[in-house]
Design a protein that fits this description.
The chain has helices at about 1-30, 35-60, 60-70, 75-100, 105-125, 130-160, 165-210, 215-220. By secondary structure, the protein is mainly α. The longest helix is centred in the C-terminal third of the chain and has 42 residues, at about 165-210.
Length: about 220
Amino acid sequence: PLTLTTLILTLSVIFVNGLTDAPNAVATCITTRCLSLRKAVLLSAVFNFLGVFVMSRISPAVTETVLKMVNFGNDKNSASITLAAALFSIVLWAVVAWYFGIPTSESHALIAGISGSALALGGGLQAINTSEWSKTIYGLFTSCFGGFIMGFFVCNAVLFIFRNTKRKHTEKIFKYAQIFTACSMSFMHGAQDGQKFIAVLLMTVGFSGIKADEKTVSTLTVI
């Protein structure tokens, strides 16, 4: 029952992750009417799946980072309860943030949730693998500042290149460009966030005592 509960909570976290993150990839296509709502959502779903399915086979580095980030100790039953509590807190926070329109990231909520739960379990700071945790801090600052700088220069470059071009000549170009970027964002969202939740599923399997052989890992990847 505990393993089933943890699995349901994991799927709930994946659901709210899609609820809050996936629309970012297709919002521009919908508002500019490049794609209908139904087509945009289906496109995002397909490329999210392809992202986690393909990238987890090329490099499971993100999954390995999350798996090594904290130490829940040797008591598997307590570890399962702690992981379930962390997942429930993520779902609760995501729903509250969505209701009030607060931008949020389930990726960082996941990392903070499992870290806080590991500390609450009694492991102290020794339960946190600082070398793996620092990658999250590095990624947070890099994505914020790097995205801002690249967005600034790319936007100005596009404006400069098409400064003397009439709008009717560029509409088709930008239509397919927006669809391409939506697919790319969805693909990389799956590649990143999908691997994080594969790590949670592997934790669940490990705490339940099920041997995580190659077949089990492949099955979890498909889920």
